[in-house]
Structure formats: C-alpha cells, structure tokens
Specification:
The chain is α/β, with parallel strands linked by helices. It folds into 2 domains: 58-157; 161-394, no CATH class. Helix content is 44%, strand content 11%. Strands 7-6-5-8-9 form a 5-stranded mixed sheet, sandwiched between helices. It has a two-stranded antiparallel ribbon with strand order 1-2. A hairpin with a 6-residue loop joins β3 and β4 (47-48). α4 (79-90) crosses α6 (109-121), α6 (109-121) runs antiparallel to α7 (127-134) and α12 packs across α14. The longest helix is centred in the last third of the chain and has 27 residues, at 286-312. The protein is globular and about 70 Å long. Belongs to the HARBI1 family. This is Nuclease HARBI1 isoform X1. It is found in: Nucleus. One of its GO terms (molecular function) is metal ion binding.
C-alpha cells in the first residue's frame, strides 16, 4: 500500500517551482513530515495533507527586528557574516540563473541563506518546521537547501585550504610558545555524525560506539579552523584507513615539507609528517609519558573544533535526512561555515550535547570494524622524528 501511495501522492506548491512543475511527487523528498496525510477521498481518489500554519513575512516582520545577539542565536552566524553570504549568493550564477529562468521568483537570496542557516543550526529543525517558519513549501525548501549547499561548496576551496608559509609559521610559533612543542602546523582526527539507519548496507555504518554514523576526518590549525576535511566513509571504517585514502595523505610532504608535521592520536600511524603518541605498553619511560601528555594537550584543538562545529550547527548531532550523499555535502558546507564563523561567539549557544550514546537496537551487538590499525604500521622515519622531539622536550 505504501509503495502505491508514494507513486500517487503529490503536493501542490505555490512557490517558484510551481511555474515549471505544478505538482511535485512526495517520494522525492527526505522529510518524514512530507508523508503526512489528512484523508483519502474514496470517490475522487484525491489526497490532502494536513494543513500547517505558515508564518507570513517572518524575515520582514521579525528577523529584521532582531538585535545582533538574537540574530546570532537563531542563525548561528553574526548578522555581518550572514549578509556577506547573502550578498555573494545574490550575484552568484546559481541565484542569477533562477532569476532569468523563473519569473516572479518569490524566494529571495536573503530567504535562501536564512532558511539554510536555520535548518543546519537547529537540531529539531525538520523540513516541515523550517518550511512553515519561512512560509514556503517543503518542496521549495528542498530546492533551497540544494542550491545553498552548492553555493557554499563552490566557495570551499577558498575557505578550507592548506596553510601558506606564513600561516604555518604562525601556528608553529603558537605551539612552541604555549606548549613548548616545535614545528606543529595542525592536528588531525576523525569524528562521527550520527544518522538514522541507512536503507542500504546499514551494518557498514555502525561505529564502535554502537550507532549509525558518517565519518568526518578533519585537520585544523591552532585557531580551530579547518585546513582540510574528508567526509563520507561509513562509521565502521577505521580512522587509519580513512586517512590512507584521503587526499591529505598523498599531500603530506607538500604540506609539511621536511620541517613541519601534524599531530594525531594513536589511531594513526607514526609518520615523518604525522606524529602520534607512544603506545602505552606498560613500559613507557617518564620522558615518553611526558611527551604523550604534551602531545595530547596540543592535539585537543581538533576535538574542540568538532565540538564547536556541532554546537553551532546542531543538525550535525543527529542528521535525520535519508540521502547520504546529500548529507555529506551539507556536512561539508557546515565545515565551510565553521571557518567563516567567529569561535568567540559560542557562549551564546546552547551547551554541547553528548551524542556518543548507542542506538537501542544496537546495544550488546558485536561490532565489526572495517580494518584496524594493524595494517598501517609506524614508519621508521616517523618514530625517529618522534624520539628526537621526545628527547628535546625532556631536556
């Protein structure tokens, strides 16, 4: 019955897409609310959805009257940063092509960006909630999210990028002066974005914390700004394997040269350009234990960055869309927005949440990780560099 309904049910739209396609199939979209039905008319075969109350002119009558703090709390970026994005989107090919193609376009550039920021910024922001707030249909919101994601990702290579020589020197000096640790230009780690059970190959998305997730590899500088992200592996894949398959792995020498290195945790192999802690076998020397503590205090920046990313863009605590490639693109876009944002304004937001709890259906279930660290052995040159640093720090 459900399959038949999905093929037959359509939602009418009074927004911009209506000019080209009067009806949109419900099955195209990801939000569960999109499938709500009010009644089936047995005589005429018509379907009506529950009517939802939309807020008319929310931006004009309410948002424009927010003070700067209220705006920040609602839209997760400062008013200045948000409207700079709006100005850029207004002149982008993505938006100007809409103006040329669709007469009487009702969704402004401002509404595009603010809809998007609200959606990614609120954990409970379903498609239905956001669409009602901004007075548009779910089908139009789906299109808005696609357009703005494409727009932000077009900016990504200008905003998330490898450090320049000057930036490397600044990060290195920061860690040398604050921690006494030389030649660091960044820290790397993996994080997990919780998702609902995928329709295809769900077991590969079960991570070691016993929930379904998408893996995010991030590398940040001392300011918690991403210099690289690699997103999309299923949650069961080990950090070391993700790293070995990332562009960053192949670019390590170009980024670090012979003088700099990144810091990682014990999930990664120790390489010449990637220094990790000594594995605690119960026989570490005092110098090695001290080295591990100092390294941990330096690389905590990447853990903090992931925490800040999710605290600001709370949709990432549990992403409930169904389309995994679409989720990957939105996660990437949130990393770009993270680099645009001011980390100092986080105290205005709700506290960070603990998302590391298992799904009920997965509790006590054996976890099968794809690969483990054994395949990725330490490099002799890496362990030599680590020993040199350990000796230097112990003097």
């Amino acid at each position: 019955m459900a399959m038949i309904l999905n093929d037959l049910f359509f939602e009418s739209s009074d927004d911009e897409e209506n000019n080209m396609f009067p009806f949109q199939p419900i099955a195209r979209y990801d939000d569960d609310d999109f499938y709500e039905l009010h009644m089936l008319h047995p005589i005429f075969g018509l379907v009506q959805r529950i009517e939802h109350v939309k807020i008319n002119n929310y931006i004009e009558h309410i948002v424009h009257n927010y003070n700067n703090v209220d705006f920040l709390m609602h839209f997760r970026l400062s008013r200045r940063a948000a409207y700079q994005l709006i100005d850029q989107f207004t002149v982008s090919e993505i938006f100007t092509s809409i103006q040329e193609r669709i007469q009487n376009n009702k969704i402004s550039a401002e509404k595009h960006i603010l809809c998007y920021l609200w959606f990614v910024g609120h954990q409970t922001g379903s498609y239905r909630d956001v669409a009602d707030r901004f007075g548009i249909t779910i089908s139009a919101l789906h299109t808005v999210i696609t357009r703005v994601t494409d727009f932000i990702l077009a900016l990504a290579h200008h905003i998330i990028k490898y450090p320049t020589d000057l930036e490397k020197e600044q990060t290195s000096n920061f860690y040398l002066q604050r921690k006494g640790f030389p030649n660091i230009i960044g820290a790397i780690d993996g994080s997990h974005i919780k998702i609902d059970k995928p329709a295809e190959d769900p077991d590969s998305y079960i991570n070691r914390k016993q929930y379904f997730s998408i893996h995010v590899q991030g590398t940040v500088n001392h300011d918690m700004k991403f210099i690289d992200v690699f997103i999309g592996y299923p949650g069961s894949v080990h950090d070391a394997r993700v790293f070995k398959n990332s562009t960053l792995y192949n670019d390590l020498h170009n980024i670090c040269g012979d003088n700099y290195y990144l810091l990682g945790d014990s999930a990664y192999p120790c390489l010449k350009q990637l220094i990790v802690p000594y594995k605690d076998n119960g026989h570490l020397t005092r110098a090695q234990r001290s080295f591990n503590q100092k390294l941990s205090s330096c690389r905590v920046v990447i853990e903090n960055a992931f925490g800040c990313l999710k605290q600001r863009f709370r949709q990432l605590y549990h992403f409930k869309l169904r389309d995994i490639p679409r989720m990957v693109r939105v996660i990437h876009a949130c990393c770009v927005l993270h680099n645009i944002a001011n980390v100092q304004d986080l105290h205005y937001f709700e506290p960070q949440l603990n998302e590391e709890y298992p799904d009920i259906e997965l509790q006590n279930r054996p976890i099968v990780m794809i690969d483990n660290a054994r395949e990725y052995e330490d490099d002799v040159r890496g362990t030599h560099v680590r020993d040199e640093i350990c000796n230097l720090l112990s003097r």
